[in-house]
Amino acid sequence: MNPQISVIVPTLNEEENIRDFLYSLEKQTSPNFETIVVDGGSADNTVSIASSKAQVIVKKGLREFPSRNLGAKTASGEILLFTCADVTFPPDLFEKISDNLWL
User: Fold this and answer.
1) Is the pTM here over 0.70, yes or no?
2) What is the CATH number of the domain that holds 74?
3) d(Cα 86, Cα 59) in Å, to the nearest integer?
């Protein structure tokens, strides 16, 4: 059994980064995860790009750590993974997290 991982990412004008981030999630070998993007009111295309691959919550003016908290309240996964939009993950990251947390 793979536990569900909730990936929580606060964003603000991350149009240049969010595609690569989401692409790295698509390539995960463990598909049991959800992605929650909490956007602070981006003026670029961050929200429209993220909406195709993630649950998106927009709260204009919300800063990074309150965004993380809102994402955690929204999450349904057993494991919360907080990250940033300029990160890309290796394809087996979620599998390794699951294997090491659920021995």
Assistant:
1) yes
2) 3.90.550.10
3) 20
- Sign, Cα dihedral of 48, 15, 33, 53: positive
Residue ranges making up the domain that contains 21: 5-101
Q: Quote the mean pLDDT of the chain.
A: 94
What's the first-to-final CA gap in the chain, in angstroms?
Answer: 11
Tell me the CA distances in angstroms from 20 to 24, 36, 61, one per residue in order: 6, 16, 24
Take residue 45 and report the two structure tokens written for it.
């295309």
- Structural domain total, the chain: 1
> What is the per-residue pLDDT across 52-76, written as a single tens digit (0 to 9) for each?
999 999 999 999 999 999 999 999 9
Q: 55 phi and psi, to 5 degrees?
A: -75, 130
d(CA 19, CA 85): 9
Tokens, residue 44? 């670029």
